């Protein structure tokens, strides 16, 4: 086992923000790990948002530490985000980003589902449904994001992947 596989240090986090800026997904890769010989990363994942009590908005955060995120699924996510945001402007304006990315292992579900929802107005922006479960704790949230937010997220996550892979 190499040193990078045995020591985990928090890195800067990749953030995917909503269009409003009030919600965000944070992914912080800690170190390289493998699960049943599949390469990946130990990560902390958090969802930040707001809840409305009828009178005021209150900040909320749901976070889980020590999740396993597979490298092939991260690579697929980044490749598909970059393929979409690099489309010519006229094509980008006509299609929202869509994709289903799962980071599931026993006792853990992490799902990033990009696609239209009947209960969410998004124009041509990407709608993200996030599902996270660890043990008996689980949450789901939805927010709308756009190509600039996706680009910043992709660049930050790629930077962290490349840093841990060297």
What report would you give on this structure?
The chain has 166 residues and is of the alpha+beta class. It has a single domain (3-165), classed as Transcriptional Co-activator pc4, Chain A, CATH 2.30.31. 27% of the residues lie in helices and 45% in strands. The chain contains four helices and eight strands. The chain has helices at residues 3-6, 71-85, 89-94, 147-165, and strands spanning 14-17, 24-35, 38-52, 57-70, 99-102, 108-114, 126-134, 137-145. The strands form two sheets. The protein has a four-stranded antiparallel β-sheet. Strands 5-6-7-8 form a four-stranded antiparallel β-sheet. A hairpin with a 4-residue loop joins strand 3 (38-52) and strand 4. Helix 2 (71-85) runs antiparallel to helix 4 (147-165). The radius of gyration is 16 Å and the shape is globular. Residues 1-5 have low confidence and may be disordered.
Biggest pleated-sheet summary: 4 strands, antiparallel
State the secondary-structure class: alpha+beta
Q: According to CATH, what is the topology?
A: Transcriptional Co-activator pc4, Chain A
Q: What share of the residues does DSSP label as strand, in percent? A: 35-45%
What strand order characterises the main sheet?
1-2-3-4
**Helix proportion range:** 25-40%
Cα Rg: 16 Å
Number of strands: 8
Mean of pLDDT = 90
CATH architecture tag: Roll
Number of distinct helices: 4
Query: Span from first to last CA?
Result: 15 Å
Q: What order do the helices and strands follow?
A: HEEEEHHEEEEH
Structural domain count: 1
Q: Pick out the low-confidence regions.
A: 1-5
């Amino acid at each position: 086992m190499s040193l990078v596989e045995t020591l985990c240090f928090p890195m800067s986090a990749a953030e995917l923000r909503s269009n409003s800026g009030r919600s965000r997904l944070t992914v912080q890769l800690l170190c390289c790990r493998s699960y049943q010989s599949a390469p990946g990363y130990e990560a902390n994942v958090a969802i930040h948002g707001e809840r409305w009590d009828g009178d005021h908005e209150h900040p909320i955060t749901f976070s889980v530490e020590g999740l396993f995120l597979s490298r092939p699924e991260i690579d697929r996510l980044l490749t598909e985000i970059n393929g979409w945001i690099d489309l010519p402007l006229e094509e980008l304006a006509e299609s929202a980003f869509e994709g289903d990315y799962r980071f599931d292992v026993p006792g853990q579900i992490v799902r990033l589902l990009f696609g239209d929802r009947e209960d969410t107005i998004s124009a041509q922006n990407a709608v993200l449904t996030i599902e996270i479960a660890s043990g008996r704790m689980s949450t789901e949230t939805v927010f709308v994001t756009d190509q600039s937010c996706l680009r910043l997220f992709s660049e930050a996550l790629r930077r962290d992947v490349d840093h841990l892979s060297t």
